[in-house]
Amino acid sequence: MARPRTPLLSRERIVACALALVDAEGLPAVTTRRLATELGVRGPSLYNHFRTMDEILDAVADTVCAQVDLSMFEDGTEWREALVAWARSYRAALAAHPHIVPFLAKGPGRRPSQLRMADAVFGAMTRAGWPKPHATHIGALMRYFVAGSALGSFALGFVDDAALYAPEYPHLAEAHRLPEHQRAVDEGAFETGLRALVDGLAARFPGTAPPA
Predict the structure, then answer these.
(1) Are 176 and 158 in contact (CB under 8 A)?
(2) Same fold, 11-51 and 69-204
(3) What would the mean pLDDT of 180-208 be, rounded to a whole number?
(4) Would you kindly state where each structural domain of the chain is located, as residue ranges?
(5) For the segment 117-161, what is each residue's pLDDT rounded down to a tens digit?
(6) Of 12, 31, 50, 137, which residue is most buried, by most CB within 10 angstroms?
(7) What is the CA radius of gyration of the chain?
(8) Mean pLDDT throughout 30-55?
(9) Within the chain, what is the greatest distance between any pair of CA atoms?
């Protein structure tokens, strides 16, 4: 039988399959047996491309972070607006794949896309005049905020049952309607918090960044 023109297995196929499983069923679904079954191969063949399951998940996480736009840190955008634009792009990438967020929360490790992102943010903040310790804190703060906002939905934390909230919780009389407005609530909360964070940084440390 002639050898197939394209290899049966590749790093790209493994990562794409793993990401689809994470999106559909969460991190516990990504096992050697499950991946091999989905790809139609034997389990050990996966390790011709990756040494461990953590390496596979690292590649999945890196694929997600590669979707984040970093151009605003390279085109001269003012630091506050650059942070806002980056945070929106970052949240969009994570919100599209929320089940990978707990794995991403471990930090960049050796993941190239996350390291490029950390480098871009830190570089932009120091170029804007922030001392290195503050630049580090800003990068960490923004990552905490964005990851937290992508991890869950405040609006979906309430149930569509008015009797559950009244009269015991009089200030939550309309809480049963929140799930109807999930996108508006969650995106509105993110935008409010994002602007508050960035404006608060500028107000708290007005002398650290040079004038425009």
Answers:
(1) yes
(2) no
(3) 89
(4) 11-51, 69-204
(5) 999 999 999 999 999 999 999 999 999 999 999 988 898 899 999
(6) 50
(7) 21
(8) 91
(9) 75
Identity at 145, one-letter amino acid code: F
Pick the CATH number of 69-204 from 1.10.357.10, 1.10.760.10, 2.160.10.10, 3.10.20.600: 1.10.357.10
Q: Give the CATH architecture of domain 11-51.
A: Orthogonal Bundle (1.10)
Per DSSP, the residues of the chain read -PPPSS-S--HHHHHHHHHHHHHHH-GGG--HHHHHHHHTS-GGGGGGT-SSHHHHHHHHHHHHHTTS--GGGTTT--HHHHHHHHHHHHHHHHHHSGGGHHHHTT--TT-HHHHHHHHHHHHHHHHTT--HHHHHHHHHHHHHHHHHHHH--SGGGS-S-HHHHTTTSGGGTTGGGGGGGHHHHHHHHHHHHHHHHHHHHHHH-TTTSPP-
Q: Residue 137's CB: how many other CB atoms inside 10 A?
A: 14
- Give the pLDDT confidence score for residue 3 in this predicted structure: 52
Q: Measured on CA atoms in the order 67, 73, 79, 81, is the torsion positive or negative? A: negative
pLDDT of residue 1: 46
Which residue is associated with the tokens 């499983």?
A: 21
For residue 157, which of 182, 183, 190, 191 has the smallest C-alpha distance? 182
The residue written with tokens 């979707």 in the block is 67
Quickly state the pLDDT bin for 33 (edges 50, 70, 90).
very high
